[in-house]
Design goal:
4-stranded antiparallel β-sheet, 4 strands, single chain, 114 residues, alpha+beta
């Protein structure tokens, strides 16, 4: 399932931004209310589209899009989840190896001296 970023108006003059990942919702940040942000993020925006600025004419939306990557990385680190595809790939590569090497203890080896 693709992760989505969306916003909700929580109080008069305040908007909160959330990310939905695998049925769980995580809080990102809260900022002052902007109509353009509400219109852009209300239906949700896929995480892989936050770096695409085509069709974004509002300065408030551009600044919010600039803020999102750092907050997403923070939530990934704190909650131990993978939101970006790159993070998912890294977690899949970190599998334990099937072999173990024994350390060479050179002080315990009997050396033949001529």
């Amino acid at each position: 399932m693709q992760s989505k970023i969306f916003c909700k108006t929580v109080a008069k003059g305040k908007q909160s931004f959330y990310v939905a990942v695998d049925g769980q919702t995580y809080f990102l940040f809260q900022q002052a209310y902007r109509v353009s942000n509400k219109g852009f993020f209300q239906q949700g925006l896929r995480v892989d589209e936050i770096n695409k600025y085509a069709g974004v004419y509002s300065t408030a939306v551009r600044k919010t899009l600039d803020k999102l990557p750092s907050y997403i990385r923070y939530v990934e680190k704190e909650c131990g989840i993978a939101i970006y595809n790159k993070t998912k790939d890294i977690q899949q590569r970190r599998k334990p190896k099937g072999h173990k090497r024994e350390p060479f203890l050179w002080k315990q080896v009997d050396w033949e001296v001529a």
